[in-house]
Specification:
Number of domains: 2
Strand order of the largest sheet: 7-6-5-8-1-9-19-2-20
CATH class of the largest domain: Alpha Beta
Distance between the termini: 46 Å
Number of strands: 20
Helix content: 25-40%
Largest sheet: 9 strands, mixed
Radius of gyration: 23 Å
Strand content: 15-25%
CATH architecture of the largest domain: 3-Layer(aba) Sandwich
Number of helices: 19
Oligomer: single chain
Shape: globular
Structural class: alpha/beta
């Protein structure tokens, strides 16, 4: 065991980006974070692709790339079908950091960390995340813990429900403040009343405010309204000051001898233009529609502009965008089913003539591969590789007709990003857009336009998150370079004197630690891997549809 294996406290600020944090620190709005970054070790934290909450936190908690843990998006596709289902803790094909710590008899405490529902028993306590179905009370371990918290603070808010619509900004900010305060009080209470060696609080407020109100914070955004900003921008920036105060208070409560890690799962930035990748695939000849009367009718309606995007824009103008979250579970399911029948979807694709399709938040491309896809036509081997080469070349040549600029910044084959037993779930081609562009994928064919001005969410994810460490083991004043989100799990195991499994991809962040600490505490390696069987069936069909509808409403999916 390490000679100095004290406590570790992680505060996860979902989506927090140095592009916002640095100006806020310079303005004096986040003095505690500024102190940690100046006196500790800090820098950018590169996330996994795609920079989406589910795979990012999965990579954090396992120390592995998605090829090993199996989560690539908020949804996963069941084998031999196009059916998509929400991910959850059971789908992970790897043990988590808290499981490994529990096995090493370290006491753990977790609050709202994504992918902790349904819970697994730990040596300590946990409260589950926003993927908990509505009405469920089994999202804490031990189960009676949630009743103990609710007795003091009222009903536990698992997730945010307010979204931006003109005239409703105050409600978004009110909910952000309420949930932040509730989570902070919960953390303070549990830290005081339960023993722990590792404690983690996840705050999703930064992600939510940046999705919904980036255009209010960012005065250069095309959607920025000076009158609206005059009323709400100061309150929006004040939210970050409250986050800073919460972090400062929890660190104080954690006490001396605690290594503190502040971090985000991905970065953030503005979005200006939506790109409809399946429209691009149709234009390029990779995706063909059926010639049936129903599909021809739906295609005609689509070309006329009567699309889901048109409906949403109309709802935004009328102030009804909040209804995307206000409907009941059965109503949302009925609405989505209706949209699938009225508008084009993958059900209208002629798979006998289609070679490529897109699903996912970042325009990930899947080859209609024989032997893998339900109606695959592309032969594995030479034909598959030639098709991928052609796709990559055409993506690099993809231009925005209006601006003349290239839309795609970088393209990857799946093996460039992923290795492991679950690579079969990965997209065949992955790519990153230029800053300001975003794939529009709420439905497979959301709009008939290839590229159009963004609507709804005004901010979205980037690959570069942030990390800041402080404590007696941390090298003071260090600027970190090259840190990756998969490095956190092995680093925490090391700090708590636990062996690191050989199948972790991440490495201990030695550049963040003092040389004398490293000399006194050797890195230990375990013999056994941390693989775990991936299980399905955490949600009922109705719960699955409710979670999918919620993800769509919040802008986490599509």
């Amino acid at each position: 065991m390490n000679k100095n294996s004290g406590k570790v406290l992680i505060i996860g600020l979902d989506g927090a980006t140095l592009d916002l944090l640095r100006p806020l620190m310079a303005e004096g709005r986040m003095p505690f974070l500024k102190q940690v970054m100046e006196q500790g070790a800090s820098g950018e934290l590169y996330t996994t692709y795609p920079p989406v909450t589910a795979p990012a936190w999965a990579s954090f908690m396992t120390g592995k790339n998605p090829g090993k843990h199996g989560i690539y998006e908020f949804l996963y596709r069941r084998k031999d079908t196009f059916q998509q289902h929400p991910v959850n803790s059971r789908i992970l094909g790897s043990k988590t950091l808290w499981t490994l710590l529990s096995e090493a008899w370290r006491r753990v405490g977790l609050i709202n960390v994504p992918l902790t529902y349904p819970h697994f028993p730990v040596n300590g306590f946990m409260i589950g995340d926003f993927l908990t179905p509505v009405g469920q009370s089994d999202f804490a371990y031990p189960r009676e813990l949630i009743a103990e918290v609710e007795e003091r603070l009222g009903k536990y808010p698992n997730y945010h429900s307010q979204v931006y619509t003109k005239g409703e900004v105050a409600e978004v900010l009110k909910e952000l403040d309420y949930i932040l305060d509730y989570r902070a009080q919960t953390a303070a209470y549990l830290m005081q009343h339960y023993p722990w060696d590792f404690f983690m609080l996840h705050l999703d407020g930064p992600d939510r405010i940046q999705h919904e109100l980036w255009h209010i914070i960012d005065q250069t955004h095309p959607q920025h309204n000076p009158q609206e900003a005059a009323r709400f921008r100061e309150a929006a920036l004040g939210f970050y000051q409250k986050v800073d105060e919460v972090a400062s208070d929890l660190v104080r409560r954690a006490g001396e001898g605690t290594t503190v890690i502040l971090m985000s799962d991905h970065g953030f930035g503005p979005i200006y233009r939506f790109v409809n990748i399946n429209v691009w695939l149709m234009q390029q000849g990779f995706l063909k529609l059926k010639r049936s009367p129903l599909t021809l009718l739906k295609a005609a309606i689509f070309k006329l502009g009567l699309t889901p995007a048109f409906g949403y824009r109309l709802a935004m103008r009328l102030g009804f965008a909040r209804l995307r979250l206000a409907q009941g579970v059965s109503s949302r399911t009925t609405i989505l089913s209706f949209l699938g029948r009225l508008f084009l979807s993958l059900a209208d694709v002629d798979w006998s003539r289609s070679k490529v399709y897109s699903q996912g938040n970042y325009g990930q491309l899947y080859v209609n591969l024989k032997g893998r896809e339900p109606q695959g036509i592309v032969e594995p081997g030479e034909e598959y590789e030639e098709l991928r080469e052609e796709l990559m070349a055409r993506l690099y040549d993809f231009l925005d007709a209006e601006s003349g600029e290239k839309v795609v910044e970088k393209v990857f084959r799946r093996e460039d990003l992923y290795q492991g037993a679950h690579v079969d779930r990965a997209p065949d081609i992955c790519f990153l857009f230029r800053s300001g562009y975003k794939a529009l994928g709420t439905l497979e064919f959301t709009s008939q336009k290839l590229i159009e001005p963004a609507f709804g969410n005004s901010g979205d994810h980037r690959m570069e998150g942030f990390i800041a460490l402080s404590g007696s083991a941390v090298r003071n004043g260090t600027q970190l370079t090259g840190a990756q989100i998969i490095d956190l799990a092995p680093t925490v195991l090391y700090l708590l004197g636990c062996p690191i499994p050989p199948d972790m991809d991440g490495k201990v962040l030695v550049s963040a630690l003092k040389p004398e600490y490293l000399a006194q505490n050797q890195i230990q390696h375990a013999e056994a891997t941390s693989e775990r069987e991936a299980l399905e069936g955490a949600y009922t069909p109705e719960q699955s549809e409710e979670i999918k509808a919620r993800l769509k409403g919040l802008g986490y999916w599509g």
